[in-house]
Predict the 3D structure of the following.
Amino acid sequence: MTKGPIARLLLSFSIPLFLGNLFQQLYSMVDTIVVGRFVGVEALAAVGSTSGFSFMVVGFAQGLTAGFSVIISQRYGAKDMEAMRRSYAMSIIGSLLMSVIIAVFFCLMSMPFLRIINTPENIIGDANSYISIIYAGIGTAVFYNLFSSILRAVGDSRSPVIFLLLSSVLNIVLDLFFVIVIPLGCSGVAIATIIAQGISALVSFIYIKIRFPMFRLRKEDWDFDPKLLIRLMRIGIPGAVQFSVCAVGVIIVQAAINDFGSDTVAAYSVGGKIENLITQFFPAIGMGLSTFAGQNLGAGDFGRIRKGFRTAFMIMVIGAIASMLIARILAVPFSYLFMDSRTTSEAIISETVQYVNTVAWFFIPLGMIYLYRTGCQGLGSGIIPMFSSVTELIFRIIAAFTLPIAFGYTGICFASPAAWMAAGFALPFCYFSLMRKLEARRSLTI
């Protein structure tokens, strides 16, 4: 990432990430499709009603491990292999510690949380069964994301895609097995997800050990280093919290939707799945820019960092326009993919399409969030992503509590775009300020 044409490097790095993100979306999408088609609309609503809570813990895992990989990426850019190995070992210890804390706390709190957001009684039992299993197995998501982040930090964005593809296929097979052959319903698809993610994490770990000798940890690398662990947490936790803060906003919107009944819950859930599928290019280009920024920061090339952000922005805008067109063209056929047209009312399909068509107009500010938030994290900032997440949360809460009163379900559809615009347009100014500080700091050390 420190040499060569920037656009080609970003695209060659980000496209495999994009494909990997699509396959990762299959985990939750297949769960929703299988229960929607083989169990029923209520089961679909049950799984969908937990999306905010699932996003909270899985997003926490993604943000935490992406933060850990920032230091590893910087050490790699600086060619300091010994420090990189120590960071890798402490990242594993930190991931294990956070996995245990998350699993215990959220398993205990799953039912109270579902009741707080007024989950309809006809789906709350299945919702609790599903999300409790996801919480209990959160370690599989944490370690898969850790090992994938490590591979991306050293420039390998293709291998995680291959592992995730194999795991996604396994997840589909297991979903069908645990729902059709062994009719476990919502619990079955959660079990399938945990098993598939665990296998993906294990394969990634073995591959790193074999393919990259520099990551073969020695006994002294495991010597506990509290200062290094604190530094990793200082970057990782703000990144993790930024996802969790965003998830709180999603949960609040979910609480507003729950008052509309299980059919609207199902429609909004499917609309959210379609949105997530179509917008996966944004986190991919963001992660590519984060790695690019981290390596070039380690190399001290600030001019290249600025060019990288400009190039990534232009790529993002093109991707946002393409995503908007895809969303508007495929909203209806995608909706029927999740639900059986023979048993699903047209009202549910209509509300699903309305949500997708509404949010599609606001993909550029959404892309700006992923680009600048993750890019600034690659530059070592935990504060900017946190500030952006809090801004997004505040505006999402305001929209969720005001717009539905005046506009009903249409107001719900505008809750996310309102948050995206507020957070997205503030981030470029934060990035420019951060770059000035980093350049001034470097000039003082020369």
Remarks:
- DSSP finds 18 helices and no strands in the chain.
- The mean pLDDT is 85.
- The CA atoms of residues 437 and 443 lie 10 Å apart.
- The chain has one domain: 6-445.
